[in-house]
Amino acid sequence: MSTKSLIEKFDNDDMLYKLTSFPQQCETAYSIPTNTERILPPKNIIFSAMGGSAIGGDVLKTLCDTYSKTPLYVNREYKFPLWANKDSLFLIASYSGNTEETVNVLKEGLKSNAQIACITSGGEIESISNANKIPIAKLPNGFPPRSAFGYLFFPSYNILANLKILEPFNKNILKKITVWVKEFSPESENNLAIAIAEKIYNKIPVIYSSNMLSSCSSRWKTQLAENSKAFAFTNTFPEMNHNEIMAWRNPKWFIKKSVPIFFESNKEHPRIKLRFQITKEIISKVQPDIITIKTEEKSLIENMLYLIILGDWVSFYLAILNKENPTEIEEIQILKKQLTETQ
């Protein structure tokens, strides 16, 4: 059966459209008003979000760690850190506006002296923000949060750029996003996303990256889980060399079923590059089927966006190979329903 016919059979909620329209989502998201003119430059930022809404915070943390003197902490919790104070900025991100953990952080944040800004499409977070005159970047609704990365990321980035924490976004990257999406779309020949999905089909991806690209490997793991309904594991260098490298002995069945995937970029420390090389040589003795994905874009953010987009497409094609509807999330819905019933 062809890829096209498989997509028609299993993509019942049109995840394909959400992927192919991603460049338009980014164009729209870049122009969304953030309404944060009265926010003062903070000494630290707490980005509170969960699931698909949090990935933008992970990317921003890496960018702040690399280019800014203002630290950004990604908070995936019901509470905010005790060290938060009047010099902090809470960025509250929830695509639906009803994420239980994030709503609770917003309510706690109102009791603090910290500045607050929200990124959401509506829900309880919009209601609380309007009632308390909190700046809000209002997003278009109608997407699963994991498919709304553009809507969530670009307004968040623009807030930090407006505060001069990060450099203004280079809009030329939006053109590259269009090119990458075309490269991974079903009509594209020599499609890297399809090739990777076929290699990891019925296997267990073990994804390795530097800390610099850890948000990308985390994104792959969560997209493979939610879209493909499949396990993946991640770890980062150099930490992996201090412990996990010894795990490539047992259990034998796991090693046989695994597919090591290495993310490599042109921005890595030379010693990290050497560690990748040596580690691959060691692992290849027990599992030679190693996938190396190299990114050689001009900037760190371009490398990160490329890997994120590629991973989204890989998870889509793997879902189809697994005969799964990539949009369906029955277990998550069951969990949310039972949590709501026990409040």
Please describe what this structure looks like.
- By secondary structure, the chain is α/β, with parallel strands linked by helices.
- It has two domains: 32-169, Glucose-6-phosphate isomerase like protein, domain 1 (Rossmann fold, 3-Layer(aba) Sandwich); 191-321, Rossmann fold.
- Helix content is 46%, strand content 15%.
- It is built from 14 helices and nine strands.
- The chain has helices at residues 3-10, 15-20, 22-30, 55-67, 100-109, 123-131, 149-162, 172-184, 192-200, 214-226, 252-257, 270-283, 300-321, 330-341, and strands at residues 44-48, 72-75, 88-94, 115-120, 136-138, 204-210, 233-237, 258-265, 291-295.
- It has a five-stranded parallel β-sheet, with helices on both faces.
- Helix 1 (3-10) packs across helix 13 (300-321), helix 4 (55-67) runs parallel beside helix 7 (149-162) and helix 10 (214-226) packs parallel to helix 13 (300-321).
- The chain starts with a helix and ends with a helix.
Features:
four-stranded parallel sheet; 2 domains; Rossmann fold; 343 residues; alpha/beta; 14 helices; five-stranded parallel sheet; 46% helix; globular
Seen as an oligomer or otherwise, the chain set is: single chain
**What is the domain tally?**
2
- Protein structure class: alpha/beta
Q: From N to C, what is the helix and strand string?
A: HHHEHEEHEHEHHHEHEHEHEHH
Residue windows where pLDDT falls under 50 for at least 5 positions: none
Number of strands: 9
| Sheet with the most strands, sense and barrel status | 5 strands, parallel
CATH class of the largest domain: Alpha Beta
Number of helices: 14
CATH-defined superfamily of the largest domain:
Glucose-6-phosphate isomerase like protein, domain 1
Strand order of the largest sheet: 2-1-3-4-5
- Quote the average pLDDT: 96
